[in-house]
Design brief:
The chain has 348 residues and is of the alpha/beta class. The protein contains 6 helices and 17 strands. A 10-stranded mixed beta sheet has the order 5-4-6-9-7-8-10-16-15-12. It is globular and about 65 Å long.
Length: 348
């Protein structure tokens, strides 16, 4: 059997895993209204589609792509959120909660998005959600997903890693069950966040914007190739599974932070943090060292938006995951899938 190797050359492999076509894809930006690369990517995609309509160009794309500005109020105000963090509002408990006039905007919005893209966990949900985010941390390009066995997400990651060779591309695994998965990408049958940094919130940097635009285009290229029947070769990939998070040292009574990330650790995302390595430097100049029981990989180091969440950095274990070859099988459907339909595009 011929397949596409990591270097783009045909190779012989074992029988692939057959998966349904990805007919409906959602590209979402502005879930956090001050993470501007995704906002502008979605706006540009909407403008380009409207231009094709105005020019009466026929859309020959076999994939239905919805380009969605997910938190328009926060985008308008260039704020992370207006009342509560939208990207923590997609647990099943929140999505099924009662809504009233007093319900925070983001909770009501999450339920609107669940109707548009889901319902979460249902056969009617879109096939793939790609949610666009920026981080102030020096993390390069990251694919963040809730599964380390979602072969679609892992193959898209492999494809991005191969084609974006000028920037580090990594896969982060948040090990949570579907009912507890709290972010927008959990609405799709498959989904991931594309997190790129460093970029200050409320600012757009050309290089970071270009990485995000390229990442979205490559993701859609992969989907089209998959839907055309291309066999994608398997192989080993590195996965970072989140283990825990560390807060800043704080004063007992005021709860004010009393230290910053140590200079030797700052901007060193995905470095191996070993016991007794420098972790924080107090405002009086003392070095505080990592006291964990095992070496772990640090990421989201000094993320601006996580100060309010009590997170100075996150820690992960790295391991290799064997990804099988995959191929789309014509006529194969998700269990109980009634079929596909055109998804409404939204520009609030």
């Amino acid at each position: 059997m011929r397949s596409l190797s990591s270097r783009g050359r045909p190779t012989m492999e074992r029988e692939p895993v057959y998966l349904p076509a990805l007919s409906r894809v959602a590209v979402c930006g502005g879930t956090h209204g001050n993470e501007l690369s995704g906002v502008h990517v979605v706006r540009e995609r909407l403008k380009e589609k409207q231009q094709r309509v105005d020019d009466e160009e026929e859309d020959e794309d076999v994939v239905s792509v919805s380009n969605i500005l997910t938190n328009p109020r926060a985008v308008q105000q260039c704020r992370r959120y207006t009342e509560t963090d939208l990207n923590r509002c997609f647990t099943r408990a929140t999505l099924s909660s009662a809504v009233s006039d007093r319900t925070p905007y983001e909770i009501a919005r999450s339920q609107e998005l669940n109707i548009l893209l889901g319902p979460k966990g249902s056969p009617q949900a879109v096939d793939l959600v790609c949610d666009l985010h920026n981080t102030t941390a020096n993390m390069g390009v990251c694919v963040i997903a809730y599964s380390d066995t979602d072969w679609i997400c892992l193959h898209i990651f492999k494809y991005l890693q191969h084609h974006m060779s000028d920037v580090p591309v990594r896969y982060i695994h948040f090990d949570l069950p579907c009912r507890e998965a709290y972010s927008l990408d959990s609405l799709g049958k498959h989904g991931f966040a594309l997190e790129i940094g460093p970029q200050p919130h409320g600012v757009v940097r050309s290089n970071v914007y270009t990485y995000m635009k390229t990442g979205v285009e490559l993701m859609l290229d992969w989907v089209r190739l998959f839907n055309s029947g291309t066999v994608f070769a398997g192989g080993l990939v590195e996965v970072y599974t989140m283990v825990s998070a560390i807060d800043y040292p704080r004063e007992r009574h005021t709860h004010n932070i009393m230290a910053a990330i140590h200079p030797e650790l700052q901007d060193q995302d995905f470095c191996l943090l070993r016991p007794n390595d420098p972790l924080f430097e107090t405002f009086s100049g003392a070095t505080l060292r990592y006291q964990g029981p095992e070496p772990l990989y640090a990421f989201f180091i000094n993320e601006c938006a996580y100060y309010e969440k009590g997170i100075a950095l996150s820690l992960a274990r790295r391991r290799s995951v064997e990804v099988p070859p995959v191929q789309m099988k014509s006529g194969l459907e998700h269990p109980g899938d009634p079929g596909t339909s055109e998804e409404e595009e939204e520009e609030d």
